[in-house]
TrEMBL record:
TM regions (residue ranges): 31-53, 184-202, 208-230, 242-265, 271-290
Domain Major facilitator superfamily (MFS) profile: 101-365
PANTHER family cross-referenced by the UniProt entry: SOLUTE CARRIER FAMILY 22 MEMBER
Subcellular location: Membrane
Superkingdom, taxonomy of origin: Eukaryota
Keyword terms: Membrane, Transmembrane, Transmembrane helix
Protein's UniProt name: Major facilitator superfamily (MFS) profile domain-containing protein
Membrane topology reported for the UniProt record: Multi-pass membrane protein
Organism: Ataeniobius toweri
Amino acid sequence: MPGVTSEASRNADYETATSFLGEWGRFQQRVFILLCLSFIPNGLTALSMVFLADTPGHRCILPVHLNLSAAWWNSSIPLEEDSSRGGALVPSKCSRYKLEHVLNYSERGLLPGVDVNLSNVPKEGCLDGWAFDQSVYTSTIVSEWNLVCGESWKKPLTSSMYFGGVLAGSFVSGQLSDRFGRKIVMFATIALQAVTTLIQIFCSSWIMFVILYFLLGLEQISNYLVAFVLGAEILGPQVRTLFSTAGICLFFAVGYMLLPLLAFFMRDWRLLQVSFMVAGCICLPLFWFIPESPRWLLSQGRIEEAVAIIRKAAKINKIEPPAVIFRTLKNGGKTQEKRAHNICDLLRSPNIRWLSVMLWLVWLV
């Protein structure tokens, strides 16, 4: 296994070269806290579907111009057993009595349940739409685009599309960060999350929303994974373990806990999306405080930039760095040449090519 041995040797060389910084100086503390803060918006969006797509109580709308008696107006919706309420009879959510029959009975002065056996009255769907209960939510995507009854399949599909984006992002994020750098990709995906969420706020259709939700899942997991790698590469062995377990999980959980609090005060799904966008925008200024990964810079042959970051870290930690920090690191006897990359380089990756083929096949199906 010569490749594995070489990689382990380079890691050991890097750890030795930067050991003078210590494990928990002010530089490491700053990187640890700021990277952990960047996970809070991810915790907000990960389960946002619970509130964005909750289904309020609903029933069929009756046209207001109908000339119905009060008795028939109140009895125009059939009663059905609700298993969630112990079999209690509740108004149907997806059907109503045919209006032509109801109008005929009302004009003739017949009373429902007295002169007319309601079980014999024909039913029809909610042809005029639904009235949604607004006691809990002012609006959700379900009430916005009537994702109930015959359209109820769109709600779980929306969630599936988000996690499809998460799957795609799991393939793409590593390739992107290897090509263009951890820091650039991390903050680019944070910015894209904010932009995607902003566009979602003004969505005019479910199709537009679900496509953007797919992209949001891709961006969210890319941000998560790249920030994870960036912290693991900058921090020392002991702090790295704390960061990758307690640090990330606890701050991600903070986002989880803030989600229901925000949803309690923001009962409209568009307004809730605004809070997600603001959370992402708050993280963007961290760009000027979180450095690029020195390990990645070294792998690209950008030794001067890596040295500059380590010297700045030593200054923050109030430590005098050695005159020469990185001697020639072992890399098969050669130093990697610095090479500029562009977005087209991704197509040369077998993983990305296979992912493109799979997404294309899914789209065709």
